[in-house]
Design a protein that fits this description.
215 residues; alpha+beta; six-stranded antiparallel sheet; 5 helices; 24% strand; binds Phenylacetyl coenzyme A
């Protein structure tokens, strides 16, 4: 059973790309700023001068603040513009960001870089970040298979520390039963699998009822 939820964002692709070209460079600069807040070793006067520069940029951006979050405005169900997402969002400096490729069977893969801002134990990615990324790619997998849902239960087994740097995640559908879909994923570092994930994704009752009403 597959569910095809409506694509909520009707904006023409060329306009989406134009807006992306405006916001992406800002987020990229902010990501480097986040990295340098952790990694820069400049003199203290330089730190204070940088603070003033950042405060000036913040004052510009603060002039107009949207009333709805990006997810609320562009409904992530449409998956055209999950730009605020903390894992894949092109406008979100917290996101590495991941670019996930997938096929209609739900097999998904992504290669990405986790820098110093994601450090937990020395030299290793924070376990919560590992879980965050695995949850996102599992969610992508079930969505790609036409079985979108919310994470009901997520189980992570940490096999070895995940080193900061270049990483890969693979995800696939394990099984499905009615409104529930189980997906699995591996986080893979230079020395093999670092963490294994299993999630059960459930189409929430409210959406089930909406789909029933339409049929
Ligand atoms: C939707 C649901 C999980 C279930 O609610 P309802 O639909 O009202 O459930 P209902 O009571 O009708 O039971 C139906 C069946 O399901 C079973 N079952 C129920 N619960 C659980 C469970 N926890 N775990 C396992 N199974 C459970 C229950 O036994 C029953 O089974 P049965 O038919 O008897 O065999 C709800 O509790 C919720 O919204 N939780 C918050 C989710 C949330 O915030 N997640 C994090 C945000 S998502 C994210 O970030 C990832 C992402 C990234 C990117 C893209 C996409 C995703």
């Amino acid at each position: 059973m597959n569910w095809h939820l409506p694509d909520a964002d009707e904006t023409p692709a060329a306009e989406v790309e134009r807006e992306a070209a405006v916001w992406r460079p800002l987020a990229e600069a902010a990501r480097e700023l986040v990295d340098l807040c952790v990694m820069s070793d400049v003199e203290e006067d330089e730190v204070r001068a940088a603070q003033a520069d950042v405060e000036a940029a913040v004052a510009r951006l603060r002039k107009v603040r949207r009333t709805q979050t990006l997810g609320q405005q562009h409904l992530t169900g449409g998956r055209r513009r999950p730009w605020g997402n903390p894992v894949i969002g092109l406008r979100n400096p917290i996101a590495p960001p991941l670019h996930v490729t997938s096929d209609a069977t739900g097999r998904a893969e992504t290669r990405f870089h986790c820098g110093a801002a994601y450090e937990g134990p020395p030299g290793l990615v924070h376990g919560g970040v590992v879980s965050l990324i695995l949850d996102q790619v599992l969610g992508h997998s079930v969505g790609a298979a036409g079985r979108p849902g919310m994470t009901g239960t997520l189980t992570i087994v940490y096999r070895q520390g995940t080193p900061l740097g270049d990483l890969r995640v693979e995800a696939w559908i394990d099984r499905e039963d009615g409104i529930k879909t189980w997906a699995k994923a591996h986080m893979i570092g230079p020395r093999g699998v670092t963490a294994e994930a299993e999630g059960v994704f459930i189409l929430p009752r409210a959406i089930r009822e909406r789909l029933l009403d339409r049929s």
